[in-house]
UniProtKB/TrEMBL annotation:
InterPro entries registered for this protein in UniProt: GAG-pre-integrase_dom, PolX-like_BBD
Classification lineage: Eukaryota, Viridiplantae, Streptophyta, Embryophyta, Tracheophyta
Ranges for domain GAG-pre-integrase: 102-155
Retrovirus-related Pol polyprotein from transposon TNT 1-94-like beta-barrel domain span: 5-82
Protein name stated in the entry: Uncharacterized protein
Pfam family, any one: Pol_BBD
Coiled-coil ranges from the UniProt annotation: none
Amino acid sequence: MEDVWIMDSGCSRHMTGHRKWFSSLNPVSTKEYITFRDNGQGKVLGVGSVSLFGKLSLREVAFVQNLGFNLVSVSQLLDEGFEVHFKKGACCILDAEETLVFRVDLTSVSGPARCLDASPSADIWKWHRRLGPLSIDLLVRLSSMGVIRGLPELKA
């Protein structure tokens, strides 16, 4: 899985556990941890830039200790102005001018099926269903800002 990048709609930011992917990497000044499905944690060792196969440049990628997967955050791509389209057999990433930047051929993906689960609380899933396609990260931020009446403060 070291050379495979997974498009993840539930992940709040791009992340990898493999130093080799970074073209630039800066240490973080605060202690930040990513919680895994088994409740283990990986320390964020740095943040930097990654070039995927010379075609797509990812910024603000977290270098996470003990992370066994490479994750591309769909929500982070959208926040950066890209469009992400899932079609039968492909995932296409377009820039602001709607030029194709990167295409993932989903028909060539092989290996056992996997489900990555960060297991947010039941309250977050309840509000996610009520409010539509908001990322978990955005729901947590909105709840802490108090901008939605009736939305309690949520924790991921």
